[in-house]
Amino acid sequence: MDKFTTLTGIAAPMPLVNIDTDMIIPKQFLKTIHRSGLGKNLFDEMRYDAEGNEIPDFVLNQPAWREAQIIVAGDNFGCGSSREHAPWALLDFGIRCVISTSFADIFYNNCFKNGILPIVMPPEVVEVLMEDAKKGANARMTVDLENLTVTTSDGQSFPFELDPFRRHCLLNGLDDIGLTMEKAGAIDTFEAQMAQSRPWV
Q: Nearest-CA neighbor of 116 among 82, 85, 91, 80?
């Protein structure tokens, strides 16, 4: 998993509330077990019409936000069914951070396991960030995980809170497997001791 330290990038404004996981990645794309390749179907039913043509009004289809790495969203982002494909699709598109007033618990947890930083901010701050995101490609927002701040393109800085353990994992690029491998030496020692004391196991 890639480390997350500081991200400066384009933020896409998505003021909709209750953006659920089926909107993020519709159910027909859940057949794969691969994390790559889902970005083209991110927000599929909002990005494309029935013939597969891009819907020009959708934010990620507009030139200013095609390269967005941050989403500023309405309340309750990632609600709905539990599907890890949702953060997979976001990450494959290039989204590394989502900012909202609240997230669904399972989606929130899945983000950290896949290298995406979900940030909870008060409504009044999200409103400021949403307006900044509307400026488009010429405005760059900065998310600083080390200092726990989000800074707008005009220099307004807002602090956010994050569980220290989750922060540690993102800063060091540690998913569940990575965390286990940090203990590889202790695991090897335990296995060697077990092989000597209980060779029949």
A: 91
Superfamily (CATH H level) for 6-173:
Aconitase, domain 4 (3.20.19.10)
Query: Domain segments of the chain: what residues?
Result: 6-173
The answer to whether 160 touches 121, Cβ cutoff 8 Å, is: yes
Q: How many C-beta atoms lie closer than 10 Å to residue 169's C-beta?
A: 21
Residues 45-58 have a mean pLDDT of 96
Buried-exposed string 97-130: b where 16+ CB fall within 10 A, e elsewhere = bbbbbbbbebbbbbbbbbbbbbbbbeeebbebbb
126-173 pLDDT, tens digit per residue, is 999 999 999 998 889 999 999 999 999 999 999 999 999 999 999 999
The predicted model scores a pTM of: 0.88
Residue 178: phi and psi, rounded to 5, are: -60, -40
